[in-house]
């Protein structure tokens, strides 16, 4: 019989996470199996994500008291130690409670012989002073204090040496949930009042039409959400959609649209008048867009299953094209903590860059003369951003970079090949946006 409870569910998800897979999918599957609801489900999720994000620091501290290191432990014992220490050091759980529950869980997993080890190591680890730690080099220091894998730490030291730690520790959107107000149904002031009545405090964000809110539960759990008064979307992502400059009556393509946040913002900017074809590569992901459009009551959105890297002559010629391409995700480390520990493999990187390049070339073919193309990513890697645009312009001399009409938050870096938001500078996610026009 499997151990029960929120801590057990978190440990089970961590064991699956070690075998690969996206953290959110692994956790959702385990929580569904556990049958947990309400606060227990939320606590299990918090333990899981905190453990995943803080793994480098957790392993460093635990390793001080494990002669053979963390990796030599049985997987359940390793997951129990990591999650127990995560609770005590990063979740304000009293150390005594974290240790006692970890020991109970060790026995429940049939590892009674390791219960003494878990007890002793956690008690010492909970009180370890990280300020006294001696690191082998600056990369290890960044890995532990910033909680990242070696490849990501090395990347940040190479490209952002003075602000690497800030990038790893800056909270996404100020630690609150970014919302896009649906102007077809409400306005920021009215939505703020409606959310306050439901117990969620909200304030204006950095991007016009955005709010930053704090929710006790899920942002999708309010009556305002069900009524389609807002959707959840990072501020930088909203800005990319606004930079498209879509107008009522336009024909617009959103080539890599799921889960649909930018599509919703674009449709609202169009006043729900015109034709917006929103595409993604699998039917399951297209279904997310379709469901979001229905909830928001937007009728100008057409959904289509389409591979953005392959030209489709059935798609219409467009006044505006958004290519928010697949990327390494190095700008959203605080939203997707498993990315912190990605291996930046050269072979995979070449494949990714080739895919981005193919999507850009297809996007160019769909655009009408005089039309606007926006290329965007949620990474801060120059090869995927400025260098990708530079190469595209060399292949496509009929395109030129132009300044967007949208107002830019303070701290945005602008240059001849686009605009960059770096976490810690702007208060937003790491994001790249390049606006280009095709000569008429």
From TrEMBL:
Record-listed S-adenosyl-L-methionine binding positions? 256-262, 280, 307, 324
Reported EC number(s) for this entry are 2.1.1.176
Which residues act catalytically here? 378 (nucleophile)
User: What is the official name of this protein in its record?
Assistant: 16S rRNA (Cytosine(967)-C(5))-methyltransferase RsmB
What class does this enzyme belong to in the EC scheme? Answer: transferase
GO MF annotation terms: RNA binding; RNA methyltransferase activity
**What is one Gene Ontology biological process annotated in the Swiss-Prot or TrEMBL record?**
RNA methylation
Q: What keywords appear on the UniProt entry?
A: Methyltransferase, RNA-binding, S-adenosyl-L-methionine, Transferase
């Amino acid at each position: 019989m499997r151990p029960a409870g929120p801590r057990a569910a978190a440990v089970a998800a961590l064991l699956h996470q070690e075998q690969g897979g996206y953290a959110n999918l692994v956790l959702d599957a385990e929580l569904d199996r556990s049958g947990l609801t309400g606060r227990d489900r939320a606590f299990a999720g918090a333990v899981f994500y905190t453990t995943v994000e803080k793994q480098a620091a957790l392993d460093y501290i635990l390793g001080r008291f494990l002669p053979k290191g963390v990796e030599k432990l049985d997987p359940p014992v390793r997951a129990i130690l990591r999650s127990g220490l995560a609770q005590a050091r990063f979740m304000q759980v009293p150390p005594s409670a974290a240790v006692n529950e970890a020991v109970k869980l060790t026995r429940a997993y049939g590892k009674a012989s390791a219960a003494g080890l878990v007890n002793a190591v956690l008690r010492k680890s909970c009180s370890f002073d990280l300020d006294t730690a001696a690191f082998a080099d600056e990369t290890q220091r960044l890995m532990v204090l910033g909680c990242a894998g070696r490849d990501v730490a090395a990347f940040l030291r190479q490209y952002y040496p003075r602000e690497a730690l800030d990038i790893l520790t800056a909270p996404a959107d100020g630690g609150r949930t970014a919302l896009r107000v649906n102007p077809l149904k409400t306005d920021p002031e009215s939505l703020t009042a409606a959310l306050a009545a439901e117990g969620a405090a909200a304030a204006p964000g950095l991007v016009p039409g955005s709010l930053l809110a704090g929710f006790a539960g899920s942002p999708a759990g309010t009556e305002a959400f069900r009524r389609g008064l807002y959707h959840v979307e990072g501020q930088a992502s909203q800005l990319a959609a606004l930079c498209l400059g879509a107008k009522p009556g336009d024909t617009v393509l959103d080539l890599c649209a799921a889960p649909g946040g930018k599509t919703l913002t674009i449709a609202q900017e169009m006043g729900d008048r015109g034709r917006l074809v929103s595409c993604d590569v699998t039917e399951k992901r297209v279904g997310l867009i379709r469901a979001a459009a229905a909830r928001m009551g937007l009728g100008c959105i057409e959904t289509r299953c389409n591979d953005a890297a392959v030209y489709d002559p059935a798609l219409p010629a467009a006044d505006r094209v958004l290519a928010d391409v697949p990327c390494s995700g190095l700008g959203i480390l605080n939203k997707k903590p498993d990315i912190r520990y990605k291996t930046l493999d050269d072979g995979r990187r070449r494949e990714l860059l080739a895919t981005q390049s193919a999507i850009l070339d297809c996007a160019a073919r769909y655009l009408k003369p005089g039309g606007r193309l926006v290329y965007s990513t949620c990474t801060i890697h120059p090869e995927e951003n400025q260098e990708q645009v530079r190469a595209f312009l060399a292949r496509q001399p009929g395109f030129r970079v132009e300044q967007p009409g949208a107002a830019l938050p303070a701290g945005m870096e602008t240059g001849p090949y686009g605009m960059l938001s770096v976490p810690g500078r702007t208060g937003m996610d790491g994001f790249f946006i390049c606006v280009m026009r095709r000569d008429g």
